[in-house]
Amino acid sequence: MIPDCNQPAAASLETRTLCGHHFISICSRRLEEYASNPTQGQLPDEIWAFLSECTPAIAEFTSNAKQLDHADRLQLLEILLHASALTRHMRRSPRKKASLPVRLRWEGFGQPWEEETTTVTLSRYGALVECQHPVQCKDILLLERSDTHKQVRGEVVWLRPKWPGRQQIGIKFLDCENFWELDWSAVQHEPV
């Protein structure tokens, strides 16, 4: 709660319950601060955490708020668009081009498969890899490094056909933050 605010709680953000007015105000102010301080194409963890919490909080707030006026709805839409633009144009961590041998495994419904392949790009939270098997967004794969045999589960979050029978897939790691064991503070942002 905000001190001296006697309005009913309407949303939660950063472990605080807020009235609708303060929720909208804080989201707007924070997004303006982030937009006015460019981060060289990379989102610091603090901003990423805020955006990850803010977006679903807005969705929950609008679905539960029965008496939002037109101005509030427009402000919330503007906040969502602003948050979306920030995440679309900035990355959570730097990308590093690297061709490393890995093994992909899928054990979902149907015929399980496994293939030896290579990475295209690495990030702190995932990778872009070549894949010859059909996959869909939200599929869960097991990725294993050929050099260390270390394994990580990842979700397919992006697909791009490359040529018949082959594609590039973006994988977001589910249970590991630095699978590649790199010093990410020393990695320069590379356009990919």
In brief, what are we looking at here?
The protein is α+β, with helices and mostly antiparallel strands. It folds into two domains: 11-89; 95-173, Thrombin, subunit H (Beta Barrel), CATH 2.40.10.220. 30% of the residues lie in helices and 31% in strands.
Shape: elongated
Low-pLDDT residue spans = none
Strand residues, percent: 25-35%
**Rg from C-alpha positions?**
20 Å
Helix amount, in percent? 25-40%
Mean pLDDT across residues:
82
The major sheet is characterized as: 6 strands, antiparallel, barrel
Number of strands: 9
Domain count: the total is 2
Coarse structural class: alpha+beta
Strand order in the largest sheet: 4-5-6-9-8-7
Straight-line N-to-C gap: 43 Å
Q: How many H/I helical runs?
A: 3
